[in-house]
């Protein structure tokens, strides 16, 4: 419980500092909300004053920040400057697509990255060389180019997957069919990195002193590999996987643009171009919270894999 409490307090501090940076950093950018609203037209000082009063832009900075945080905790992110809709409603319509996309990409990273890396670490030879070459290729190909290649091959030429859309409102099977290629394009560089890290960790643990000692005592390989090799190799693999999974939200906008998906990544790009402060702040805050929560889960997973982490973190 002490270990969990310390991690929760650290997460709360990180989220507080990050929310302050998200709220304040946007106001350092050129332009202002009222300039976007008037669209370059010449308006009177009374109109500008009315706009600033409507959006509380004349309040002190800290007052606006505290009000924004309090409203955000209640799910109220304000109103979009571009279309006058509630930001919460915009997010509610677009967030499921991004969550499906990143969730499926995370599964691919864990299954393919860890799986291929484990096979390469345990089976040196031709199979290892093939996996190593594929991981180098996957890491070198940019995400948008991988998306175009996957779309051209599996959608246009073979017709196995839809070209556009997220399959929303058509059931889970339709969602998976529409988002398989985007998720693979999004996860491909991370799969390559995780596979290489897993391969190296498994090889090191397989030749480690404790593994050699277990072999000398007659422990069979079918017991040695899962209990001593793979489990000990999971610590660095968990770290790398957690970082890459946490960063999926930030990289989703590229894939959403290529595959024309209505997610929050595409919404973020549009909102930045339009100086829609309320939407940008809300999406950025969601990304920060997601990153912090995933890192917390990684820390807790450390404690499950290696109890020494839990004891050391609580002392």
What key phrases describe this protein's structure?
mainly alpha; MetI-like fold
Overall description:
The protein is mostly helical and 315 residues long. It is built from 14 helices and no strands. Helix 1 packs across helix 4 and helix 8 crosses helix 10 (221-246). It comes from Arthrobacter koreensis. It is found in: Cell membrane. It is a multi-pass membrane protein.
The CATH superfamily of the largest domain is known as MetI-like
Q: Helicity, in percent? A: over 70%
Given the structure, what is the number of helices? 14
Based on secondary structure, the structural category is: mainly alpha
Determine the CATH topology of the largest domain: MetI-like fold
C-alpha Rg (nearest Å) = 24 Å
- N to C succession of SSEs: HHHHHHHHHHHHHH
Strand content: under 5%
Let me know the average pLDDT. 79
Short description:
With 315 residues, the chain is mainly α. It has 14 helices and no strands. Belongs to the binding-protein-dependent transport system permease family.
């Amino acid at each position: 419980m002490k270990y969990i409490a310390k991690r929760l307090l650290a997460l709360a501090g990180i989220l507080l500092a990050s929310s302050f940076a998200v709220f304040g950093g946007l106001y350092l950018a050129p332009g202002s909300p009222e300039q976007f609203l008037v669209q370059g037209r010449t308006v009177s000082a009374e109109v500008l004053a009315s706009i600033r009063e409507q959006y509380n832009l004349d309040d002190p900075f800290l007052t606006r920040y505290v009000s924004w945080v309090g409203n955000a905790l209640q799910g109220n992110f304000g109103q979009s400057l571009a279309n006058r809709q509630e930001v919460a409603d915009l997010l509610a319509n677009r967030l499921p697509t991004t969550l499906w996309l990143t969730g499926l990409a995370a599964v691919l990273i864990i299954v393919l990255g860890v799986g291929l890396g484990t096979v390469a670490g345990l089976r040196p030879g031709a199979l290892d060389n093939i996996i190593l070459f594929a991981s180098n290729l996957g890491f070198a190909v940019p995400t948008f180019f991988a998306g175009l290649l996957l779309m051209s091959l599996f959608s246009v030429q073979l017709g196995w997957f839809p070209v556009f859309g997220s399959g929303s409102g058509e059931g889970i099977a339709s969602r998976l069919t529409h988002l398989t290629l985007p998720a693979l394009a999004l996860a491909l560089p991370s799969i390559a990195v995780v596979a290489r890290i897993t391969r190296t960790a498994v090889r090191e643990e397989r030749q480690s002193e404790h593994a050699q000692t277990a072999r000398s005592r007659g422990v069979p390989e079918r017991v040695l590999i899962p209990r001593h090799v793979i489990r000990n190799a999971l610590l660095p693999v968990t770290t790398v996987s957690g970082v890459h999974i946490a960063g999926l939200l930030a990289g989703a906008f590229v894939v959403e643009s290529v595959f024309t998906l209505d997610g929050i990544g595409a919404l973020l790009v549009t909102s930045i171009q339009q100086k829609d402060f309320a939407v940008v702040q809300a999406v950025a805050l969601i990304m920060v919270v997601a990153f912090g929560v995933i890192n917390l889960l990684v820390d807790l997973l450390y404690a499950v894999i290696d109890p020494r982490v839990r004891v050391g973190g609580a002392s």
